[in-house]
Amino acid sequence: MLIYDLNANPLNSNEWAFPLTECFHITSFALSIGTIMLVDLRLLGWALKKSTPAQLARDTGLWTLAGLFIVIISGLLIFSSDPLRYTYNAGFQWKMTALVVAIVYNYTVHRKVALSGASPGIQKLVGALSVFLWVCVPFGGIWISFV
Amino acid sequence: MKNRQVMLTSIVAALATAIVIGLGALLTGTIRTLPGVTAAPVTAPDLARAHQLAGSAAAIITLGLAVMARSLTGWLALIAMALEIALAPFPITHAILAPVCFSLIYATGVMNSPSWVAGPQPTPSQWGPLRVFADIVPILVLFQIALGAAFRHSHIDNPIWHVLNALIVITIILIPGVFVLRQYPEHPALKPAALAMVVIAGIQVLLGFGVYMVLLMSEGNNMGLIVTGILHVLTGSLTLAASLVFAIAVNRNLIQSKA
After folding, report:
1. Which chain B positions have a beta carbon within 8 Å of A70's beta carbon?
2. B167 and A73 in contact by Cβ < 8 A?
3. What is the ipTM of this complex?
4. Rounded to 5 degrees, what are φ and ψ at B124?
5. Cα B207 to chain centroid, rounded
6. What are the domain boundaries of chain B?
7. Measuring CA to CA, which residue among B37, B203, B206, B234 is closest to residue A77?
8. pTM of the full structure
9. Contact A80 B182 (CB under 8 A)
């Protein structure tokens, strides 16, 4: 049987560990969501009109992936500090649902529309939904401490 | 012809060194558990002898490699191997020097590969600090290996600094790695070096997370801890090697613009 003692977790036994891990988590979230937002703003027709959505998606894709990698690793570390509390926390549940949906959406519909040059109406719809989904993720994260 | 022989010898030497490192990791496989948790030592008859025999074989192959290659990395690999043997009684130094030796052998092999021998393909640097980042990465990886060795050999109680430094190292690796993959997607030397470094470092972080989780959930030593621990140690050496080759490739192929 697996055992798990919260006090044995190094993240809980050092006052610097948790906030530093959070710093990495939030900064890498800013990188990944920020790069996705660049494509979204272009899809919405609000910014970066000199570049096509396809160019922006290609230019930012690897940075988004790099950010998401650190987000997930640092997120798993944070989750390990108190798995039960997070599992039953409504804010965390919301965040995880939004994150999974947003990642799947980003690498399917969003990517296809950005690269294919769909009609402006479709682009706006896809961009708006992407913004909504990615805003939901940090929104849920912030609520973890308050619910 | 000579380069091909050196490259093949490097592959054999690197494999031999990897086996030595793996056996060493198994030998010190009283793998550190978290404070307050006692672990039964992993001992197998003649494991220490197997480690020494494999080490001797790796040392002889490295000597042959250095004589054949007659290059800076070859001689440095030999010096690192000699120091490794001389400092065997000091576990941390022994654990740090092994990846250094492996990396120098790996670099010798890469520098004798057909694509490398064909000569550099100089390309203008599109970002000044890229070379600095590339040079910093192997140093940071070595420091990270030292932190891991210090925890493994009970010189530090808490693995958290090794864990937190992993986040710093992967970030510093991804910055030049992703930049090169984006800006030089067709370059025959820079792209493979960056891709290898980024992928190996990513696998290493995932393996490290695996070890961390098994440590958290284990009462003592178990097969999961031993296997993930050995793989983590081996991939650590590979990460250092990949970052060293990346640094060499960047310095060789990028032309710094004169501002």
Report:
1. 167, 170-171, 174
2. yes
3. 0.79
4. -65, 140
5. 14
6. 2-255
7. B206
8. 0.85
9. no
